[in-house]
Amino acid sequence: MKTLNKISEFLRSSGMQSTRMIIGVSIWIAIFSNYYLWLKISKLGEESNISLIISFVFILIGVNIFSISVLGWGWLLRPIASIFVVGAASGAYFMQAYGIVIDSNMITNVLQTDFNEASDLINLQMIFVILLLSLPPLWFIWRRNFSKSTFGKLILQRLMLALLGISIAVVSLIVSFQAFSSTMRNHKEIRYLINPYNGLYAVFKKIDDSQKRKSKDLVKIGEGAYIEGTIDPIVFLVVGETARSDHLGLNGYLRDTTPLLSSRKDILSFKNAWACGTSTAESLPCMFSHLSREEFFDRSENYENLLDVLKRAGLDVLWVDNQSGCKGVCARIPASNQEIIEGNINCRDDGCFDAAVLNNLQKKIEDLPKPGKAKGTVILVHQMGSHGPAYYKRSSSDRKAYFPECDSSALQTCSRDQVVNAYDNSIRETDYFISNAIDWIKETYPDRPTAMMYVSDHGESLGENNIYLHGLPYSLAPDAQKRIPWIAWFSESFKREKFDENGCAALLDVDAKISHDNYFHSVLGMMNVKSEIYNPDLDIFKKCRKY
């Protein structure tokens, strides 16, 4: 304690406003910008919660003082302190509003978000909360000039201030070590809630992971791939967005959210399918990889993906995006974004419903390079689907069935029924799109074997336990974010050419557990692609096929 008193006396005697600013900002961030952390700890139901929160506050104050003192030299002090303040305020809002956590996956989502997606997240409540948590400390940071000190005095001051911060943190940790270590060990989600260090760690981890793989050459896979047979199929693969399996009428949901698909007798719906990630940035590259989920996230190499193998085998491959990009999956094949079509009933100023994709799709297919067409064509459509939080924007007014809807991106301001209504209407829009896609492919290519497969990238939380959207770490995410719809349809000519005379529906267990691990191999099997990379044990249609 004597050491702390001496340090404190020195800092007061130095007369430097910067010292008071650093301490004041550190206290503000620890107490106010971490209110969601304190709320979560208070609900853990352990006897030592109050004393743990008090000790944790002092640990954070000490760490903040140390971090800002060490990083904020010279003219960098105010910008560094401001970044801490605004970053912590932003993290606090999104964690509290949507029940998310900040990790490297969430940073990836932020970096890959386009303007329309970002604008859907902006609302008055967000602006108010971030300003409320940011303006007071920002005013404190920028209100006056700091008195100048000699270089030697400045170094001594910062060293003493950093030592003060470390001392506060260490003493507080020692006092509460048993409760602190037990809580962090038993409730791993807490580490993702510590502002602003959750975000800082996530950013540096993202940079480190990117640099490690960026320096690696692309590893080719399936180099000897070829097509067996000459039936010239055309297959429509729909990459769904944010659909959860338990909200499909086709899968037993109490609401008939899939009236068109449910009325068909030729639909296969796999009811126990699981995503390999909880966000598009994770799931999309993972589901198109030949690796299992565990292997994919532990990989150290950059591998080609399913689309490279299909192309190498001689198939024409086209990617059409009605979303924010293919996350690198379509980097080496023809790809296009769905443009807004003037006067089209499925388009608005800020984008198009998925049904608009069908309007000019045939021309895009005809414009593909000619040599591969004799072996077949694979069309991939990346849906807008049920992308949140503005679910109400994802369905056409004449196809909405459930009211009242939540017509705000601030989901926490709506009742859960309103949120679910808006989401379920978006599922009906997907039902409309898939059904129309099947009709389109049948009518456009009546003389070719055709098929359609729809698989969502991940699910969605709709307010259960105050959790919204998606993107939680896989180990913490509820099943709603991981369990997805998987739907398949095959034309009669496709079934005659590919499948056993008993058909496919009778041979498959649609309740068996499958996952994105099966996607790569099932598509290769559908297209009769022969390659050493193909694993028949992971092909969900293997039981149906003639060969």
Automatic annotation (TrEMBL):
SUPFAM superfamilies: Alkaline phosphatase-like (SSF53649). Residues 62-208 form the Phosphoethanolamine transferase N-terminal domain. One of its GO terms (cellular component) is plasma membrane. It is an enzyme of class 2 (transferase). The keyword 4Fe-4S does not apply. GO terms for molecular function: phosphotransferase activity, phosphate group as acceptor. PANTHER family: INNER MEMBRANE PROTEIN, PHOSPHOETHANOLAMINE TRANSFERASE EPTA. It comes from the Bacteria. The chain crosses the membrane at residues 21-38, 50-76, 83-102, 122-142, 154-180. This is Phosphoethanolamine transferase eptA. Its EC number is 2.7.-.-. It is found in: Cell inner membrane. InterPro entries: Alkaline_phosphatase_core_sf, EptA-like_N, PEA_transf_C, PEA_transferase, Sulfatase_N. It is a multi-pass membrane protein. GO terms for biological process: lipopolysaccharide core region biosynthetic process. Keywords: Cell inner membrane, Cell membrane, Membrane, Transferase, Transmembrane, Transmembrane helix. Residues 233-529 form the Sulfatase N-terminal domain. The gene is eptA_1. The keyword Kinase does not apply.
